[in-house]
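retry 2 of 3: previous attempt timed out while embedding adenosine-5'-triphosphate. Reduced batch size to 1 and resubmitted. Inputs unchanged:
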Amino acid sequence: MIPAERHGLAVKDLCPHTTEVVRRLQHAGYEAYIVGGSVRDLILGKVPKDFDVATDATPDEVKVVFPKCLLIGRRFRLAHVRYRGTLVEVATFRGPGRSIAAGHKHADGRILRDNVWGTLEEDAVRRDFTINALFMDPVTGEVRDFVGGFEDLAERRLKLIGDPVTRYREDPVRLLRAARFVAKLGVEPDPATLEPIAELGGLLEDIPPARLFEEVCKLFLTGHAARTLEALQRFRLTRVLFPTLQPGRQPGKADIRPLLRAALLNTDERVEEGKSVTPAFLYAALLWPAVQARHEALMERGEPAYMALQQAAEEVILKQVRRTALPRRFSTVTREIWLMQYRLNRTKGRRAMRILSHPKFRAAYDFLLLRAEEDERLAELAAFWTQAQKERPSTQGEPVKRRPRRRRSRSRKRGGQGRQ
Ligand code: ATP
Ligand code: MG
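retry 2 succeeded.
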């Protein structure tokens, strides 16, 4: 138990809505705490992106306290409580229980389902890292710590709870979470937590691609992408996540080109400035070297350039999504960004200018700028499109007016010109 004066976390800094949710659960006779990343981030003086609550009330009991809440999730059942516009995730304490004995564990040690309720202490030890297992009572201001997480946090130490190899095997995504926390929080894994990572990376091959996609978004679209890549490289996890990247000199590492580094720094800046970021652009940058290599190989075989680019794009996306999915609404844009690079080579004539009104022009242009950082021969082309936008600002985002066509083209026109 760590009293408020020691952790320096003021109750007034907490989200008042989350505090109210906890208060109501406690009032109804349950135990309830703020938990996980939010407590950790607050102690570090960072602003948490969301607040999670853990309680001994079951989801059905939470529903009685908050009749309008939604019960969600299959792997873990959770209650989503909306209080004055704030979404609070309320999870019931989970324990090791009978789920494992009952065959919910995969032959390789992976936990497939663990909806077995437990006590506060059991809920603490089933969490991944000690710094993620702190429970705060916002009413008394006390922090409950069963695993030494508070001290680890003070010493910026990342430590898995329990035997690291067992815990990584249970859920290999913890390997990626280790890299993420190193990048995001500036913590350093203790030797026992660090040592098995590189060797166990292969376990990620068995994780459903959709879950890895979610993880990729957390790794690269939350403001610390550049440092995340460094951590993945150091932990030799880059290539298991992105098998399409060119291998680096050491196993597990990838050969990182300047374009990707620039793209990641750029993404981090955008997050910092509160601008939107998209997996479509991230994947475009990640997979570009593979697309280029394949494009060249296909052209050497005599494929016409544009068709070769289309085919290369298709093949590379297909290979990558088998590991980390990319929903179609994004992969369509990724492909468009690449194919538009080809169209951006054309700078002469009215037709060439039409691309300025393409809804994805801006993304394609940003991508061209990144390519120009890597290849100085593209500087002139990039400058041309910078200038073209200044000269024709009114066309931005609007369809370019065209002369009326003869009837024959009508049906084609209705089909659209790639605008959405
Ligand atoms: P972030 O600030 O990025 O959200 P977080 O620690 O809150 O980081 P979440 O994915 O939101 O991460 O998970 C909330 C909490 O649930 C964690 O702090 C941890 O206690 C627990 N948790 C999440 N994923 C796992 C896992 N794979 N294994 C064990 N515990 C986990
Ligand atoms: Mg969280």
